[in-house]
Amino acid sequence: MISMCTKPRGLTAGGNSSSNLLTRPLNTLHSRERRYLRVCLIEHYRQTGFTLLEVLIALSILAILMTGLIKIAANNTQNLWFLENTTLAEQVAQNRLLQLRLAENKPETDDGWEEMAGRRWYWQVSRAVAHSLGDGVWRYRVQVFLEGEKTAYVDLVGYVASTS
């Protein structure tokens, strides 16, 4: 931007320059030199600030970026919740299969509730009708649901040796 502050006539005589004026004490300046400095300083401060439009544009860009960051954080939280529940449901299903392997009585179907990590899990165990690996092995399917939800977090298939 071109400065509108021009040196008044008469200041060039004697080698006075604007940089020279700034280094001299204020009480040694003539009234014309003081007026010149005052006008230049006022003009300088008017040119260095931001306009209202520039500030509004910057704030709108900042608001758009912050909205995107908040959405990303919310998605990460939701994904973390799902992964945590899937991991816990997998542990519940593995526990059920292990208890089936250790039990003397191996039922065709079973269900129940288990609490893990402060959450209640509903599990269902069902045995396949056909023996998939021969007469001595049964195929079991374990489904685990979080309390209040209709879709299973885990649907695990495992093989257990029959007692007969």
From TrEMBL:
This chain's protein is named Type II secretion system protein I
Q: Which positions fall inside the Type II secretion system protein GspI C-terminal domain?
A: 83-160
GO terms for cellular component? plasma membrane; type II protein secretion system complex
Provenance organism: Methylomonas methanica (strain DSM 25384 / MC09)
Instruction: Tell me where it resides.
Output: Cell inner membrane
Q: Which Pfam families match?
A: N_methyl, T2SSI
Which superkingdom? Bacteria
> Which GO BP terms apply?
protein secretion by the type II secretion system
Q: Does the keyword Glycoprotein apply?
A: no
Quaternary structure? Type II secretion is composed of four main components: the outer membrane complex, the inner membrane complex, the cytoplasmic secretion ATPase and the periplasm-spanning pseudopilus.
